[in-house]
What does this fold into?
Amino acid sequence: MECHHVLPLHVAGEGHTKLSDLALICANCHRMIHRRAPWPTPGDLRASIEQKNAAHRRAAGALARPRRAADEQMPNT
It folds into this structure.
C-alpha cells in the first residue's frame, strides 16, 4: 500500500496534512495516477478500470455465445 495525496502538495502549499487529504492505494494504482496530467482521483481511476473491464466482459460474452444451428453446418468435402 502507498499513501497518495488527494490534493497535490504543490497545490495545497505548506501546512499540515490531514488524514482526509490522503488515500491508501496499491503501488500499481499510484503509478497509474501519476502517469498523466492532470492526475485523476483514485475514484476516477477506479471508474476508468471498471468501465474498461465492463467492455472486456461484453466482448468476451459475445465470443462465448452459443452457436446457431446454421453455424454448425459444414459442407462435406
The chain has four helices and two strands.
